[in-house]
Fold these 3 entries.
Entry 1:
Amino acid sequence: MRKAARAAVMTVIAGVLLSGCSGGDGERAEPKASAGTAEQRPSASPSGGGIIERATGAWKSIGAAKSADGLQTLTVTAGGKVVAKGDKLDCTGTLKPGEKSGEDAPTLTLSCEGGNDGGRGVGTVGMKGDDALVIDWAGPKGGWGGPVDSFRRTAS
């Protein structure tokens, strides 16, 4: 009974974290493509192009709480170079192509100065449509994982 309750609680927590804690904008995560619909990937935009190409541009964190180790902005250049900034952090990195469960899932390797990076270093980048980006950080070795950062595209 305890195992079932614990599993239910962990599922709810994971759902909240993966939703990006966006403050209740009413959006839901898209379901994963089944094996029979491999051509219709949620990461593919109607205009085509992979996540690295679609991620190019300026992004702002949708997290309401500011913390010393949080990222507030993210900029991705056409070559996959990344600059991320927070209240105290100044980070640079590179997006590299990758796959996870057969879907486009590039890896971001980030190096930060200015304080504790909050468990960032290597993360997997995902997108919902062309205006929502999420980074699921691996966190320290032997740990439970790292933070999840969610961003919205900024107006140009």
Entry 2:
Amino acid sequence: MKHIIIYILFILTTALILLNRYTPLYINNSILHFIVLFIAAASLTIITGHLFGKLKSNKSILLTFLILGMACFIKGFLTWDGDWKTQTVVYKNIQNGNKTIDYQLRGSRFAFGYRKRIIERLKIVPLIDWTTDIDTVGLDKMQWQKVNIQLNELNLPPADDQ
């Protein structure tokens, strides 16, 4: 029974990582992304260890978890650019309240400044969105209501209007 749970965890977390990487699905929380990555790596290691007859004791499994945790943390630290944070919800869909058009910024850890984007965001579940780039010039005004809600998730100081 334990093996089936590990296989299911591996399939689910690997699918989530691949969807996050190659589709518009976006895990919008770095901690959740780290946890999913760690579970995928740990379950793959346990599956491989059981197939080759290794990792039989709890001590070897614990040591493997610690090494994998450090490896995932280092990988995350070196490759993570930062989370996209919504500064302004520009439009809200009239028919679906979970669908918005957001102005987002992402701060780079190793360079100065912010990257910007305007996206259509569908909130699937908390911490997971479906995002697509959108041009607001040709927007159907019958489906979208302009709201301009300032969220400032990066906690930037207000711009001086002088």
Entry 3:
Amino acid sequence: MDTTDLELLLRETAPQPSLPDRLAAHRERILAGEKSRRTRRLRMWAGSTAVAAVILGGGSAAMAASGMETPWGWVADNVFSVSNGAETCVAGFTVSFSEGVDEDSDIARETRAFVGSLDLQTLDTAQMEAVVRESKPTAQNESGDPIPISISDAEVKQFAVWRVSSELMWEHLEAMGYDAHLVGFNMANDECAW
């Protein structure tokens, strides 16, 4: 018996993991419950997250940003890092625009200039961190019992910085006379171990 035969034998006799039968229904229940609680801006954030994936993969849209390179090699409008005690966790922030808004328009230039000028390390996020901790998300198991989701201090800090920055950006745009609903604020992080 050679190594190929041994490998085939091992694969054929290995136990197959069983997946929960109602996993898709459980996921749909969680997503449906979450959608009903979001406000207009939270829905825009969720849609903006999809745009962030395009920016991560496409590169060309990210290269139009202000030039803050992330550890992953793409360019963000601003970058924030926080320690989780064992390593440094990094988040890249990008802005996106509704369809029909030109990347070279006044609102795009103003938004990128403002976001790029924010000192994310010194933002006062204490109040938003408390809000994030209070609204700690929960999931439900198959029988409908709540299951709390644990969030580390580093993750709470990243999310709070994202929320405070986006609120500041939208307030700034409205003060400048722009329609803030045309702009999305996205975060991509390195998902380091919490």
